[in-house]
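Prompt: For my understanding, could you write out one protein's sequence and backbone structure tokens?
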Amino acid sequence: MYASPVSSKKEKYSYPRYDSSSEKINNSRCFSSKRFSSSDLISSEVKTNACIFCNEFHAVGDCNYVLSLSLEQRKKILSKKAACFICAKPFHLAKFCKSKIVCTLCGKRHLSILCNQDNSVLKNNTHLNENKDDNNLLTENFTLANNLCCREVYLQTLIVSVENNDVKHYVRSITDLGSQRSYVSKYVADVMKLKCVGEQMVTHGLFGGLKRRENHKKYSIELRNTENNFSCNVEVMDQNKICTSLPKLKEPKNIEELKQLGIFASDICLNENLCLYENDPKEIHILLGADTAARLFTGEIKNLSPDLIAMNTKLGWTVIGRSGITENDSSSTLMSLLVNDVNISDLWRLDTLNINDPAENQSRKELEEAAKEHFERSVKRDNEGRYIVSLPWIHDHPPLPDDRKIAERRLNSCIKALERAEKLVDYDDVFQDWQKEGIIEEVDPMQEIKQGQHFLPHHPVFKENSTTKVRSVFDGSAKERNTPSINDCLEKGPNLVELIPSLINRFRVGKYGDRGKEGNIKILLHKRVVFGISSSPFLLGATLELHLKNAPDHLTETAQQLMRSFYVDNCVFSVNTKKELARFISESQALLSTAKFELRGWEHSPTEDKIEERQEDRKVPVLGLLWNLPKDTMSLDMKSLMKEDKGPTTKRKILSTVHRIFDPIGFSCPVTLEPKCLLQECWKLGLSWDAELPLLITERFERWKMKLPKLNALEIPRCVREDFAEDSKLSIHVFCDASQSAYATCIFLRAESADNTSCQLIQARNRVAPLKKISIPRLELLSCTIGARLAKATISELGLEKIPIFYWSDSMNALYWIKRNENWATFVYNRVLEIRKLTNPEDWRHISGTLNPADLPSRGSNAEELVKSLWWEGPNWLRMPIEDWPVSETIPDFDVVNFEKRKSIVSVTNTTTEQL
């Protein structure tokens, strides 16, 4: 629900509600848009169906029954049920499977539970994501994994006493400071009949990508140490399984040492058979996270060996570390529960636009297609031409409360703030206008709230330099504790951020750029889709696409251009003549008005006959960048970076700073490499988000940040072609390079005419080298891979499939691999295979490292060096005639290239036949 003022007098105000029971919402307004600690797991959202192995309604990853089966038995069940041997879903065979699941154990294409590499141990992973609680965003990653190891590793296990209603049980537990929450197994909760005190919404996932939402119950339990001289109350969430059996200390030498020190460790001295367990006495049924453990530790530590220590807690002593005994079949368990309010995934996601693995794209496209199919089945149109759409509800989503109390609290706070700022009347006018236009309507306050109707909180945003001075922003993620928000219950649709590079590419091709924008408490009902709910950008985009597909024949060309020009409610495009510009504006307005969509606030670069337009230095925002209209240039929006950021330098501060540099083109990517490398160093050192960083890292970050204001002088031409003669010869040039720190690619458009040759950067990307050390030749091959991916996307977006394309690398070894279709080892083979599919090997050429413009983004630079380099204009030799381009022989290091050949095993059999 949202609260909205409906009177400029001293009355109370209203909060319109959102009717989610009636799925029919008119969509006639354009909306504005808001839009990885790296993870080893890939998750994609799917509908929860019955488990293929036990027929219970849970994901395969939560199935305990499957863990008791051998690999052969699992495959037999899949075969019997005609299910896929890759994703374990029914109704298709593996050869027809579109899922791009990758096993985390062997890297092959199947679920980890179907891997024959390590079938003897549990492979269970749960990925939790706790959504926003009112205003705070928290992301939880809860990981339980097992793998073979050589030496026994002991975690902080102990035996505690749990009491409930005069019933007392010993339970084996673990202390985990990597977890921010505490957990109890559902088995213990059921056996002890614990009383539920609330619920928590979380999301479960599996290695291969399965993921589902589920409510978890909360309990308050009393824990006591085994000596019965300390007790504490702990709030825990239930969990199907905390983890499987964990080892306990058994080395006689260490046990004797504990006795000599007078240390009583409950998990060592007591028989685990006294504990409550389901299948194995060594099971863990309680996890004490940092929310509890922080008040339990006494700080007393005893060293037992270089790799083993005893730590004292108020619940008893625990032992942690590695043993000195080698075990052949022992399992090591990694447990971690992390809550972050900084989303590093946004940073990595922007870095990988148009260069991420096709497997990830395919998995996401399947989900997007499902959302589109639902839209196409349910969309309708009324007599006025407006489209009526259904919200894409998640199947079996949890019950959605009305959230009226939140809306009332937010309304009261909003009114007080508006009165202090003397903006109450201005904000009230917004809702008055909406009522007049029929966007919202008043509801009888005495009318009973229908099931499914939901109240949305809201707040104003004032922008004096905008055509819309004040607008209302609705919060679809608001919720009370332990309940879902409306966004938790809706499918989000495709990730629209990925559209930005495509739109900017097309925006930079034409000569003229253009942009079109878009008392007593009363209850008001929304009659339009509200921007603020997660699915609204998708619904708007799908509605526009449907409308434009049905355009009349004489407007087909304009409709097609509009389809390639929209990002939510922003329309950006470019044309080559003033006549085209006028025609496009006129036809697009006429076309969209039939569906009650209004294009307004037009801005375009100055034409030759309006010289006075060039005298005013005016910048307008375009898809996160700034467009200087008189100069027709584009630059970064540096306002948020200019704010003083006090306090110590932490990992969170570095991430926050670099995250504010939004550059979908990549022309500033050499500058943003340094903080990304610093973040990686922090990961290597195991530093927490808010720990003060070492002096060396801090000084490097401060030196980098000191140069950032120089980026204000960084402007690139909006138009990538200076000469628009019809006889201009165009060509695409893709440069690739790598260093120990990163690998990079950049793409330039070269336009050659009789009088002039110009060259401009279209797109650039760089990626930090993996933590695991990789040889330079392999990194060079990775740069060629992302170069091929980025080129394919760019060429398709600009419709330049028929012009010549040149790929350049200064790695003779990588070029040797690409040009020869031989049986290379897996790493090289897979990347060469993809490169040869995306490009013609004959188009690859060698360039000296000193002449390669991709060298700069691969090694990085500060802002001052970047501005002086003018690297976005391309190398000077690229403006010369083709016969003057540098030529060099490609003689690789044969020791390096041949090392990557797949090893062959030759078997010779000698058969002797004797005649009788």
